[in-house]
Specification:
single chain; mainly alpha; three-stranded antiparallel β-sheet; globular
Length: 127
């Protein structure tokens, strides 16, 4: 893969990266795991709005993509999750930058959404 690929190319690196965060909860869980190892129940209680089923699917998907590690604790056989090195590179790099961008530009995005919802952005000038 190279830095510049044809639009819609199946092997485009941008498509690969976008697929890694395309599901709503994937980046949220990755960012929650930046703080360190967490049990599933702690993630469920700490992430507002995610259901048990969706969190389980998210953890399986992130594990299958090599972004998190599933750890069975030897003392009580409970399971915990933490970022893999690959997951840390994504969470600490591009996702952290995207989060900073969202904080810096949230007002502009919300204003554009409100403008669009009011129908102002949908009007065509007749001349």
């Amino acid at each position: 893969m190279n830095d510049h690929c044809l639009p819609f190319a199946a092997d485009c690196a941008v498509r690969l990266a976008a697929d890694l965060i395309a599901h709503t909860w994937d980046p949220v869980v990755l960012m929650a795991l930046r703080a360190g190892r967490r049990r599933r129940i702690d993630l469920l209680n700490g992430i507002s709005g995610v259901s048990d089923k969706v969190l389980t699917q998210t953890l399986r998907r992130l594990h299958a993509n090599g972004l998190i590690v599933r750890i069975t604790m030897p003392t009580d056989r409970s399971v915990a999750y933490e970022l893999s090195d690959l997951g840390s590179s994504l969470a600490d790099g591009p996702l952290a930058a995207l989060g900073r961008w969202a904080i810096d530009h949230a007002d502009q995005v919300l204003a554009a959404q409100e403008h669009h919802a009011s129908g102002v952005g949908n009007r065509v000038a007749l001349g």
